[in-house]
Amino acid sequence: MTRAQLPTGTVVSVNGLAKSFRKVAALEDVTFSIEANEAFGILGPNGAGKTTTVECVAGTLRPDAGRVTVLGVDPAEDRETVRGRVGYQLQAAALPPALRVEEALRLFAAFYPEPADVPDLLRTVGLDQHRKRPFGKLSGGQKQRLSIALALVGNPDVVVFDELTTGLDPQGRRDVRQLIQQVKDEGITVVLVTHYLDDVERLCDRLAIIDAGRTRFVGTTAELLAVSGTGTGGPGGLEDAYLAFIEQTTAD
Ligand SMILES: Nc1ncnc2c1ncn2[C@@H]1O[C@H](COP(=O)(O)OP(=O)(O)OP(=O)(O)O)[C@@H](O)[C@H]1O
């Protein structure tokens, strides 16, 4: 993939975001910003509001309060701009089981004004050999590769991956991590929602911790280690820092 012009400066800005579903306050106050070509991790316990946040960024949900700007526009107002420039990892399980890998990519490519080259993309994600395989017969790792390809098919500037490595074996996670690194190396801004601290440690420049609908921390992993007071790292160091941080904010 060759990319003509990538954005610079702040590409995602989220300020005071709030969103409720009937009586459930999913988000109360979420604030962070992401710079061009950063890999930005979003962590937090189950139900913390991570997916709701990235759906507001992708423009698939409209917040009740607060402001989101993506590539200079409001994603809920300017769906067309954001849809073409922000790749959102589709929950692959939603694809019909008989749809073949290449067919799925060509189908989705047709929605975009300047789609990626499908054979190129198949090679990039390592599904070239499996392009005729029906979706229902792919392994978990192959489905995640297809998810990545579908998020990239519109040639986005920003890509959002939500729990991409969940459920994969260690080899599968390593492969998917390499692929995410490749995406970042192309200059694409990566937003990674994950429960894995080592994904963040290996891939992300900065991270946000969201808990109970509020951002509790934004910074680098080194800053998280420093503010949690759990030391300077070592095996499990980041996990200890994260857990200490969550316990501390829950107690507050
Ligand atoms: N469409 C919806 N209708 C009702 N409640 C919702 C809806 N989507 C999310 N919620 C609720 O909002 C809260 C935040 O959910 P969200 O999916 O954003 O959390 P998450 O941090 O992504 O969780 P997980 O790590 O478990 O995926 C939860 O209490 C969830 O039950």
From TrEMBL:
Keywords: Antibiotic resistance, ATP-binding, Nucleotide-binding, Transport. It is a peripheral membrane protein. GO terms for molecular function: ATP binding. SMART domains: AAA. It is found in: Cell membrane. Residues 12-237 form the ABC transporter domain. InterPro entries: AAA+_ATPase, ABC_transporter-like_ATP-bd, ABC_transporter-like_CS, ABC_transporter_ATP-binding, P-loop_NTPase. This is ABC transporter ATP-binding protein. Its main location: membrane.
